[in-house]
Amino acid sequence: MLYPVLNAKRKRYSLDGIWNFKQGEYVPGVDARLSAEDLMVVPSSFNDVAVESEKRYFIGDNWYERTFRVPSFESDEELVLRFGSVTHQARVYVNGQLLGEHIGGFTPFEVRIPEELTIEKELLISVCANNILDHTTLPVGNYSEELLPDGSVKKKVSENFDFFNYAGIQRPVQLLVLPKARIEDIVVTYDIHGNDATVKVAVENTANGGNATVTILDENGEVVAKGEAGAELEIANVRRWEVLDAYLYTAKVELFAGEELVDEYEELFGVRTIRVEKGQFLVNDKPVYFKGFGKHEDSYVNGRGFNEAVNLMDLNLMKNMGANSYRTAHYPYSEEMMRLSDRMGFLVIDEVPAVGLFANFTAALSMNRGESKPIKTWEYYETMENHKRALKELVARDKNHACVVLWSVANEPDGAGEGADKYFEPLVKYVKELDPQNRPTTVVNIMMATPERDLISPLIDVLCLNRYYGWYVNHGDIEGAREGLRKELLKWQEKYPDKPIIMTEYGADTLPGYHSNWDVPYTEEYQERFHQMSHEVFDELQNFVGEHVWNFADFETNSYALIRIQGNHKGLFTRNRNPKSIVKLFRNRWNAIPNYHYKK
């Protein structure tokens, strides 16, 4: 799916701002509009804008409504509504007419407005954002209903994951005026040979008998290649996109119907290679070392709502620390974040919202001490259809991004559960079939799926491990944690010597300003000792190629999976992006580690 742009053939109008809002039952229509009694800002998570607890924690249908003036457009153009994301299921109405539905809360979708509706000068748009999660959805939740004394039904979701279930219209909404005969999709692939590159730009369009041309421009706007869409175009002395040294070319696509130019679009792309070989992760044939974070789209007031200022600040803070990468835990981040990462040269592990795929999540976190009756995850969950849909939409959106170097098919599933391999084998194969650049894959491993028990690792290219020795295991015991971490990582290295290993989560909750002379959990000193120990172990391993600390910043969590006080405090920064003492340790370490050739 193409990102919305403004040019001579395409117009866009923002519908962001204040919308009328209602939770619960509602039948949209021009004669029964929502009142302005309750208001909500778009984009945002409704949860943290709401003041009352019952509104913040509401589960069910969340209605948004506003009017907009119909812009002028020609007979060969049409109106399209585009949503960056609506969490988790969306229904879109215009003047009470259902125009489209979408499942999945983190990828964009479009809805065409029929011509018969556009004869009106003003249209009413109504959007239902349903935030129910169950055993069929991604993320996974535990859904239930409670009959109240007044006869009404209260819907409940116990999240099967350790972050807050923010919801609503969380990314921008735009009204697009597009040519009916238009460019629908662009796929950029390339092959590098010596100092040159052969680039192929495939174009999907709706023009009957139309033909498309491609002009490739460098960053100075100079033409470096030109030809028909789908043809092999040669770029001499190609400048490669490098880690933290990005270089982006522009593929300018022009669509013609006969001699008439009917549409145009410019797609940015970087030229770089990715390969996994002999325990190394190679970018442009050089072994890279991932330095960075697992993080969340999470900030005060906005919740998970789109905030370009927060995005840029986060990347600037990361770059200042010497970080070169991050994982989009645990869902696709905004398109704008991907575009920023392309420009700034960050490596991205791109993850679908496949989190909570562990039927005994809370029991597992407490090391299965009988807190719940075990359930066979892969017999109970019915997520395959939505999992494939999520992968398809993610690859369709992010396929041309140079920053995306690894697909994460899931986070912390029940990898040791019977049937895990049968569930993931077709998914790993599917994402490779979808991706025109054939990027490597991973499934992020949970603590309980040890080298002896895990069933998924043989299927994937890169081992990504989430481990908390010194926190959930060996809590407060640094030396015991050191021994446990070293022992397990050596087992992974011995079993899979040709697979690169990235530690995608490791961390300790820390309260800024809390200090001790001893190894006391939650103190800033303990956080430093924890990470120093972890890094010393990491540096002993040969095919260990990266460290993503959990987490970049403190973030909001639910109250179900783990009992926490105002969220997860494993961040190196507070939720409002103030640094903890640990930041200096990471800045010194990461700035001393080169992006390439750290592990010889």
Backbone shape:
globular
Mean pLDDT: 96
Q: The CATH topology of the largest domain is what?
A: TIM Barrel
Query: Which structural category fits the helices and strands?
Result: alpha+beta
Which regions have little confidence, pLDDT < 50, spanning 5+ residues?
366-370
- The first-level CATH class of the largest domain is given as Alpha Beta
What is the spatial order of strands in the main beta sheet? 29-28-27-26-25-32-31-30
How far apart, in Å, are the first and last alpha carbons? 40 Å
Major β-sheet annotation: 8 strands, parallel
Radius of gyration: 25 Å
As a percent range, the share of helical residues equals 10-25%
CATH architectural designation of the largest domain: Alpha-Beta Barrel
Could you say how many structural domains there are in total? Answer: 3
Number of helices: 11
The count of β-strands is: 32
The CATH homologous superfamily of the largest domain is called Glycosidases
**Proportion of residues in β-strands:** 25-35%
